[in-house]
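Appendix C reproduces, verbatim, an entry submitted by the partner laboratory led by Prof. M.T., so that reviewers can inspect both the input and the predicted structure.
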Amino acid sequence: MGRRAMALAVAMLVGFGVRVYAAGSAPTTPEQQAAAAKLVEDVKTGSARLANIQTAISEGYQQTTPFRFGQWGPAHFNNRQYTREKRFLDPERPSALVYMRTQDGRSVLIGVMFLAPKGQGPRPGGPVTEWHVHDNLCITSTGAADVAMAPGQCPPGSTFLGEAVEMMHVWIFDNPDGPYAHSLTVQGIQAAVRYAARR
């Protein structure tokens, strides 16, 4: 793994400058809880065809983050066309997919990620469906993610995005941190590895 890829993987492991923008501090209503649960099920159904990574690639998904542990682990694949369509919460056309590359080389879909301009992400589940931003996010001309090494200072060839874009993950495996966890903890990765081994 190169130095830039290593820096990005480390940043992702420690939260990649995550800031959460909650819908509010009020307790969730039964309707919001039901809407959040329905979104998870809709994502599982809507993204089922994308379980095959070759199908995803044929639809235009491209890898934008390195596999976290070099040759294996989770990585994001973004679809620039679906992102440009601004259908911010479409379970059948998510902005990005997260695959777990197993140590035997298989790629297993473990979640999706939705993108929206900051403040525009729909929150059908209220506080359950929080969006977050990364305050040190840079993007290359190919759409790959990179890390600002100092506030607002991106590596050559990339542009600082900062907090202009918010995102929300929906995990389709049994994540101990919940289906809307903002990043994968050690426990989340362990659960994703177990999930991938059964696929």
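The first strand starts at residue 18 and ends at 21. Additional entries are available on request from the coordinating office.
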